[in-house]
Predict the structure.
Amino acid sequence: MKTKTAILSTLGVVVLAIVLGIGSLFLFINPNARNANERAAKVGQGVAFVAMLPIAGIWIAWGLRKRAEREEMEQERQDRKKRKRSTKE
């Protein structure tokens, strides 16, 4: 996953979480109830947790891609060094 794609995907998940969180507050929380603040806090924590799972997946995939690219570059560098040594002999 490219960096731009990872950033855009993260922003999409965050926006979706905000929309769903606000929507669930309006649907499920009665502002006149005594425990409305507690229930709203629980809904917010749940939405944050659910949003973090796909965000973690996005950035883990990005990290694995970067790691593979770095390993490829290191392998190419080692191959060039070997070729250089063999041409000197």
